[in-house]
């Protein structure tokens, strides 16, 4: 009988404050969708870091004859040359210099593998990637640079290779692909922080709406609660219907948030827009990651409104 009474009171409370309950549901749904989205975004960035850092190489480009000629012209004109050109003044890289660079790289404990790319191979790869452009037709194999592609056991240690080989005779430049990747991830982290900020604002709005809804509901039923108090009902028994109302509204909002997250995975990533097929360079998360976040969304959808209602009742419901 008591359970039936509590359930009937919940239904009455939700119907009396239908507009405010709807506002609570919408605000909770949006805030929890952003919460789940920020969790997925953080995991996606971490996944991408692991994927791309593992593929990122340190490339050591060697001086060719054209580099040596440009370095000589820069020196004769009074300009000392800049960057890699200045290191090529003594001419193109020699076979002995290449062997020494390769042996030193392989002797480094943090180096996982070393791959040599000749000028002809570099030209072939360039034509495969940029052969459709106008500039590609003016590039010849002798203009391409030989290089060593170095894969590290720990990509975080790329500066060790850079400091060891940058500026040496025969070496034009030392390029680390991780630097460009870091810029991309920095932007993604900023976007994730913005999503977290918006989520926090929406959660605050949802909490204020919940507190206000509970206050209005308690005020509109002050006669019933007064009678319950006179007949000996406990404070907890009087408060339960109000807390359950907030919990039900929060759970409905959490369910909507789950629907939005699942729909985003289905229509944006896998089908519809189909980012997984269109952007194959990104290792998108699968359904396992999305489904793993849904229990957190549902739990917070229940807990947050319940706690907000409990705190509001202690202050505004005189029992």
Automatic annotation (TrEMBL):
It is found in: Cell membrane. NCBIfam families: FtsX_actino (NF038346). Forms a membrane-associated complex with FtsE. It is a multi-pass membrane protein. The keyword Electron transport does not apply. PANTHER family: CELL DIVISION PROTEIN FTSX (PTHR47755:SF1). The keyword Cytoplasm does not apply. This is Cell division protein FtsX. Belongs to the ABC-4 integral membrane protein family. FtsX subfamily. One of its GO terms (biological process) is cell division. It holds the Pfam family FtsX.
